[in-house]
Amino acid sequence: MNTSVTTPSTFPWHARELTEVAAQLQTDFDSGLTADEAHRRRQEYGDNELRSAPPVPGWRRFLTQFRDPLVYLLFAAVVISFSAWLVEGSTSVPVDALVILVIILLNAVIGFVQEERASTAVAALAKMSSPQATVIRGGARQQVPSIELVPGDIILLEEGNTVPADARVLEAAQLLVEEASLTGESVPVEKDATATVAEDAALGDRHTMVFSSTAVSQGVARAVVCTTGMRTEVGKIAELLDATEVEATPLEREIAAVGRALTVLVLLIAVVVMVTVYAVTPDHSAASLITILLLGVSLAVAAVPEGLPAILSLVLALGVQRMAARRAIVKRLSSVETLGSATVICSDKTGTLTQNEMTIERVVTVGQTVDLSEVSRDGRSFGDADASEAARVLQLGTIVNNAEVRFSGDAAPEIFGDPTEAAFQLALHRHGIPSPQVNRLREVPFTSARKRMSILVATDAGDRSVVAKGAPDVLIERCDRALVDGEVVPLTPQMRSTILKQVTGLSERAYRTLAVAARPAAAADEHAEDDELESRLIWHGVLGIVDPPRTEVAAAITEAKGAGIRIVMITGDHPRTANRIAADLGIVDTANAAVPFTGPQLDRLSDEEFAAAVRETSVFARVAPAHKLRIINALRADGEVVSMTGDGVNDAPALKSADIGVAMGITGTQVTRESADMILADDNFATIVAAVREGRGIFSNIRKFLRYLLSSNMGEVLTMLLGVLFGAMLGLRLDDGTVILPLLATQILWINLLTDSLPALALGVDPTETDVMQHPPRRLTDRVIDGQMWFTIVFVGLVMAAATLFAFDFFLPGGLIDGPHTTDEAHARTVAFTVLVVAQLFNVFNCRSDARSGFNGMFRNRWLWCAISLSVLLQVAVVYVPLLNQAFGTVPLNTEQWVMAIGLASTVLWADELRKLVHRAVVGNRNE
């Protein structure tokens, strides 16, 4: 199959006969394309994706690092420094200007690397959540990424799928497709493979076609892909994906606001410093003015944490990657903020709280009860397996079934489709019961509203039957007879009561119940109305299907409750089953402590009564998707931050309405996964709690590096400001009025480069604290940088400034402290410079917690120690390497000076330890 394929986007696929479509696409509607042919066509037609904006070259992304007001200030500093060099008429190289240029370049490299790592991490996450499609290739059903689809592929569609490409419908059963995103049609459009459509029919009237990016809201279908990628209808109107601006998150907006406020504040301080220095300095020469301007610019640049956005994005992206490694795929970085604030987790039961390993353990007919766990594989306990009523119920359940199970030796069975439906085939295989061979004539598919499914089948001999399965309380209303001991008898009220008691008995033992009914059919049933087809059924039996709780969920629920998070179960299952599972997992205290509300009961409540019920009830059973949405809205209206899980297409509105929509990665539909903020790759409730824990840890780390950056920069600003204001007292003003600056402009920039990058980033990946789930959720209205943090920032900044200025005064002649230990200005400034650098490294340990001791778990973060070690080595190089001495105005220090510098720098740690001790004592007294 290697001839040319006709796939023009203008070809009227919707109006042609299927034989012509097959000929044009060179495909087989039964077996599909071969793997080799699919690969060849992908090479020819490209990937099935919309064209995006071309990637920005790396060199252009690097140049964007220089498009920042703070970088402009640094370039101004270069010009000022170079001007000073020219004015002085020096014959040597302009060292200061070159040093600032090198710092600009290093800042750009660091920013570029951080942004590249962040974008790479986000791209990897996007790839993990890429959509999948079910195709027939080489006669076998398989899952492939939607991007790999090619014209001629045979795709299978079912409720909840997003249509992956434009395709011609080959077979359809009750197929309804939401096309509002493409045509604006507000109601689902019915699709029919046999419909006659004119060539010039409008897009919304092409009932034989399904279109890329639309959603299947009901039914099943088989279709052949006609066009892919930009040749699809949505591709014709698609805008470039990269043209959409990403809205800033609340956290990013707050950080930006803090940055703007700090910029204004620091510029004012810089002006004050420059004016003060100018006022008290008798030398008003051009060289002196240039030096003062250079100082002000350097101070402004160093004091503003311009690396915040890049570090914030990288920390979020790395944290989200850690979540993905734990099977929680967060699609939007902004969701991390909300995760740490979740107060309620609303969860489905099946597959999330339970194992989703559906096993039929009991088959209950009117005449017999069979416990399959006690039946041997050879079927002898069934008697005659073909005649046994229990075996017949299992066989009928296999007929009214869309799941596919592949058995391969001793390997675990491979299941495609609903696990509950697969349980019938697994039971037949396990117990050696032959699978019935029938031909399907018609299907009335299951929907969440109908709660049943029916099939019209015929044997090779021509015998026709209607087979139905569904919720027992729904299906029994469609029955007027029952099979009892091999005889079909009228379904009396007494018998109906007995059956319902059987259902209740199974439900009370935490079984999921599913009923099976059937009747002989006539040829007229093929064209009968759905209700008529599903009437006059013969009750065959009800099955007890067990889906045991996941072993790890109970501990996760206990942890969530300890973190102040309320757990609410919302399920369509029987109330007694829901309550039993809830009690086993600890959602409710005991099985009798809470009576679940059901959907019909909720419908009878007023808005006030509904709000009260949602506030007090933790288990809701037999609910429809509309109830889920109403429950979510009621919780949010009550001030809760709600996480909601869902898997079906009808869950999408509730997931969108929740603060955190969580889709199931295994059982969830594609529409649901695309609507969600987070996808559980393992459908496990414990993964949600782990994601909340990780989200809290990420947010805690963000506060750590914010506390570090701002307090360290505050130390630099206060050192310069206080040094100028109290210069005469500290001996920083000479007899002729000249002011000795505590730090040179290049030294300030070096501190900014050294301490604002690696140590801050290492704090961003600090291991999550062990007690992070022992605190109540953070309110979304709480400030990231609250009053307590601002107090700490200013306090630590003052201690840093005091230690630095004390060092300068201690080694500089004159001032408050004088004696034999004094030396020259270069040594005093080098010691003060080193004190400030090392103090900021000590401050790293302070910032790991606002209340806990810095010595608590101080060796848990190896990246932090690596960052500190590298920073110390670089500072040692600046002090001892002659070339760097010239560049940064430093001189080598002796042992006494190093001991003094380290001792003074450590006061930052001891002072903050004392503050934390007082804080813990005050908080402890309040709690008592």
List the helices and strands and how they pair.
Layout: H1 18-25, H2 35-45, H3 58-63, H4 69-88, H5 95-128, E1 132-137, E2 140-145, E3 154-158, E4 166-178, H6 180-183, E5 189-190, E6 209-210, E7 215-227, H7 233-237, H8 250-280, H9 286-303, H10 308-325, E8 328-330, H11 335-339, E9 344-347, E10 359-364, E11 369-371, H12 389-399, E12 404-406, E13 414-416, H13 419-431, E14 439-444, E15 452-458, E16 464-470, H14 472-475, E17 479-484, E18 487-490, H15 493-508, E19 512-520, H16 530-533, E20 537-546, H17 553-562, E21 566-570, H18 575-585, E22 597-598, H19 599-603, H20 607-616, E23 619-621, H21 625-637, E24 642-646, H22 652-657, E25 660-664, H23 670-675, E26 678-680, H24 685-725, H25 745-755, H26 758-764, H27 787-811, H28 825-846, H29 862-880, H30 882-888, H31 895-927
Parallel strand pairs: 9-21, 9-24, 17-20, 21-23, 22-23, 24-25, 25-26
Antiparallel strand pairs: 1-2, 1-3, 3-7, 4-5, 4-6, 4-7, 8-26, 10-11, 10-20, 12-13, 14-15, 15-16, 16-19, 17-18, 19-20
Helix pairs in contact: 4-5, 4-9, 5-10, 5-25, 8-9, 8-24, 9-24, 9-25, 10-24, 12-13, 17-24, 24-26, 24-27, 24-28, 25-28, 26-29, 27-28, 27-31, 28-29, 28-31, 29-30
Quick rundown:
By secondary structure, the chain is an alpha+beta fold. It is built from 31 helices and 26 strands.
